[in-house]
Automatic annotation (TrEMBL):
The reaction(s) this protein catalyses: 5-(methylsulfanyl)-alpha-D-ribose 1-phosphate = 5-(methylsulfanyl)-D-ribulose 1-phosphate
Lineage top rank: taxon: Archaea
Broad enzyme group: isomerase
Annotated binding of substrate, by residue: R57, G58, A59, R100, Q206, N257, K258
Family: Belongs to the EIF-2B alpha/beta/delta subunits family. MtnA subfamily.
Organism lineage: Archaea, Methanobacteriati, Methanobacteriota, Thermococci, Thermococcales
HAMAP family cross-referenced by the UniProt entry: Salvage_MtnA
Residues forming the catalytic site: D247
Name recorded for this polypeptide: Putative methylthioribose-1-phosphate isomerase
Catalytic activity, EC: 5.3.1.23
């Protein structure tokens, strides 16, 4: 497919995750929309904390940040022997791995670098360090390319009109452009996007704080709604398609995404609205057969008991799963950087690999 647009023609935003001069640079997503601030991190522990506390979040952005965390280790390690270096490498790998459990991109990126390092065990220390940094940068650059492709592919198959999205799978959630973000940006560029409905996405408000901010910044016409309004908007015939990102898509097409995605998928079916997920191959985990096997992160009770730092409920017990599983029967198609996958997913997802 011919790619009509370059990233800089689709967004005014800079990359969300970058690496230079032995530092990881991130747009601090906890501060948006009040403040746009790029922070710099210089230790593996700082990167792990940024992932845990969601200063960087969104499956591909987490993957790239973790890869850069390993680059940071490589360039800053003072190990004098290879054994010492490898011990430190595995420690860094474990610290980064134990941050968030659901998005498979984290493990995909860390394992890609670990595999490379192990294949080059016999090379010089200087060469191994160089390879780690180069691979981390490749992971980030490939993410941007994949998003650009998905944007063009997705914009061709989504119907023209009003689109609804949940959470943030935009530029902030990736290295640049977004998965959903790229599709919406290409649609907007081509005059195919009439209106974007943005779910606020309680409890962390990635829709209100991040999606509304970044799409508005790029001039995409949107309306923000509270999560419980989505069904009514669909019933009123004001949604032509729903598109969401994914944290992990498994072999049968079931997928994990931000809590509330499943609710939307069921409502979409009831209202005959096509329902898409869009994700790069790094989000597809063929080692799991069905969605029930995906580990679902549970986050702190404070996220539910508060809103914007204010207490909104008494000190009661809370259940706070960060993701849910959407069974593949609700999916119209999976848009990937290698093309569109339609049902039967079990058979067709395999063809991508
Ligand atoms: O908890 P988050 O904000 O990291 O969850 C993000 C999502 O669920 C996104 O939809 C998903 O990671 C896809 S991002 C391109």
């Amino acid at each position: 497919m011919k790619l009509k647009y370059k990233p800089e023609e689709l967004t005014k935003l800079p990359r969300s995750v970058e690496y230079r001069d032995k530092k990881v640079y991130l747009i601090d997503q906890r501060l948006l929309p009040r403040e746009f601030k790029v922070i710099s991190l210089s230790t593996v522990e700082q990167v792990a904390k940024a992932i845990k506390t969601m200063q960087v979040r969104g499956a591909p952005a987490i993957g790239a940040a973790a890869a850069f965390g390993l680059a940071l280790y490589a360039e800053r390690s003072r190990a004098e022997t290879k054994d010492e270096f490898f011990n430190g490498f595995y420690r860094a790998y474990e610290i980064l791995k134990n941050t968030r459990p659901t998005a498979v991109n984290l493990f995909w990126a860390l394992n890609r670098i670990k595999k490379l390092v192990e294949e080059h065990r016999e090379d010089s220390l200087a060469e191994i360090k160089r390879l780690i940094v180069r691979e981390a940068q490749k992971i980030a650059d490939e993410d941007v390319e994949a998003n650009l492709r998905m944007g063009h592919i997705g914009a061709e198959i989504l119907p023209e009109g009003n689109v609804l999205t949940h959470c943030n799978a935009g530029s902030l959630a990736t290295v640049h452009l977004g998965t959903v973000g790229a599709v919406l940006r290409v649609m907007h560029k081509e005059g195919k996007l009439n209106l974007l409905w943005v779910d606020e996405t309680r409890p962390v408000l990635q829709g209100a704080r991040l999606s509304a901010w970044e799409y508005h910044y790029d001039g995409i016409p949107l309306k923000l709604i509270a999560d419980n309004m989505a069904g009514f908007v669909m019933q009123q015939g004001k949604v032509d398609a729903i598109i969401v990102g994914a944290d992990r898509i498994v072999a049968n097409g079931d997928f994990a995404n931000k809590i509330g995605t499943y609710t939307l998928a069921v409502l979409a079916k009831e209202h005959g609205i096509p329902f898409f997920t869009v994700a790069p191959l790094s989000t597809i985990d063929m080692s799991l057969k069905s969605g029930e096997e995906i580990p679902i992160e549970e986050r702190s009770r404070e996220e539910v008991l508060t809103c914007g730092g204010c207490k909104i409920a008494p000190d009661v017990d809370v259940y706070n799963p960060a993701f849910d599983i959407t069974p593949h029967k609700y999916l119209t198609a999976v848009i990937t950087d290698k093309g569109v996958v339609y049902p039967p997913f079990e058979r067709n997802l395999k063809k991508l690999f």
